[in-house]
Amino acid sequence: MSEQVRDAIVIGSGPAGYTAAIYLARAGYQPLVIAGAVTPGGQLVNTTEVENFPGFPQGVMGPDLMDQMREQAEHFGAEVEYDDVTAVDLSGPIKTVTTDGGEHYSARAILVTTGSNYRKLEVPGEREYGGRGVSYCATCDGFFFKDKPIVVVGGGDSAMTDADFLTRYGSSVTIIHRREGFRASKIMVERAKANSKINFILNTVVTQINGGPQGVESIDVKDTITGETRQLDANGVFIAIGHTPETGFLGGALDLDAEGYIVVDGASTRTSLPGVFAAGDAVDKIYRQAISAAGMGCRAALDAQDYLTELDAQA
C-alpha cells in the first residue's frame, strides 16, 4: 500500500488522460497516471493513421501519437503505472483508488479519463465466435480474413474507416446499417462509397451469427422495413456500433446519466464530488474525437489545479 498522499491521480490514459497529465506535471503536481493494463493509450492504440489531429499534416499512427503524449507527460514528471483501477473511495478530502494488482493510492484530486468500451450487438453467436470471426478491432484482426468475405456492422465514422481498411484483406466488404442514413461524416461516407470493394446493405439488422469449428461462416439479417430475412456469407464480422462508457469501477461514487456517462457541472469538468474531475469519452457522448478529448483533458487539469490551489490557500 502506498503511504504517500499525492496531489493528483489520473485514472485512464488516451488523449484526455495524457493531456491532463502533461498540464498537471508542468504545473509541478507530479501526477500518477494509472493508464490501464491491457490498452494503455485508449482506443487510438488500435487505430492506424490519424489524419485529423492538428500538427501532423501527413497524419500520424494512433499508437505513435499516444506514445508521444505519454513521453511528454513523463518528461515533465508524470509517473505512469500500467494497471486497472477496480475500486475507489472518493469521499472526503483524501481520495483512494485500488488497482487490480492490489495497490492502493491516495490523492487530493482525482481525474477520471477512462474512456469507453465497444458496444455489443447482443445477438446469438456474437459471444460464441468472439475471436473466431467476430471482432471489434479492424486493425487488430483484419489480416486474418485475407480473401474472405467480411461484414462491418455500423453507420458511423468508425464503421466507414474499418470498412475502408478491411478492403486491403477481404474478398469483399459489406457495410450493414439499420437505417437509410449514416451518422458518419460526409467525407467518410463518400470515401467508402467510392471504394469499389465496399457494398452497402441498409435498413437491415444482424439477428444471428452462424459458424462451425473453423469460426464464423454466415450471418442472418432482417430488413427493418419489410421484415424479410436472409442469410449472408461472412467469415469476418466487425462490429462498430458505438461505445459504452468505462465507469462501472466507480461503484456509484459519482453521478452518472442514464447511459452511464459521468455527469459534469456545465462546461466544466467538475463531477458531483469535490476534488473529482472527469474528461474524455467517459463524459463526452457526442464528439468522441481525439482532439476534443485532449482539450477536455486540459480543462480537467486546469480545474484540478484551481481546486488544489484553493486547498493550499485554506491550509
TrEMBL record:
Record's cofactor remark: Binds 1 FAD per subunit.
Cited Pfam families: Pyr_redox_2 (PF07992)
Keyword match Oxidoreductase: yes
Catalytic activity field: [thioredoxin]-dithiol + NADP(+) = [thioredoxin]-disulfide + NADPH + H(+)
Residues of the FAD/NAD(P)-binding domain: 7-297
Tagged with keyword Flavoprotein: yes
Family: Belongs to the class-II pyridine nucleotide-disulfide oxidoreductase family.
Protein name: Thioredoxin reductase
